[in-house]
Amino acid sequence: MQTDIDPRSLIGRKAFDRDGHKIGTVDEVYLDDATGQPEWAAVRTGLFSRDAFVPLEPSTVVENTLRVPYDRALIKDAPDFGVGRHLSPEQELQLYHHYGLDIGSPGPSPCSGAGT
Q1: What is the pTM of this model?
Q2: Where in the numbering of this chain does the PRC-barrel domain appear (predicted)?
Q3: pLDDT tens, 79-91?
């Protein structure tokens, strides 16, 4: 993700999938505990819906929107952990597997919410 953007500035931005379909609005940003870098965003997928976690790498910010390079159906099927709580290493691992991402280290660092 673009590192020159304050993670808190993502909150409230619209999020779109790889095909340009609206996913929802960024509700929270989760930082990696070890690095402090933004790692996940919780996107509110609808008025009465839930938040879906999306990876911020390899997502990009384009014209004040978050562009997530995954299909909307995959995003909406992401594991639901609720927002406002710390992601456990097991939850983060589930998200990595769901999106087919490499962990990049022997074990994922838990993430903490940085927004709202």
Answers
A1: 0.83
A2: 8-72
A3: 989 888 899 999 9
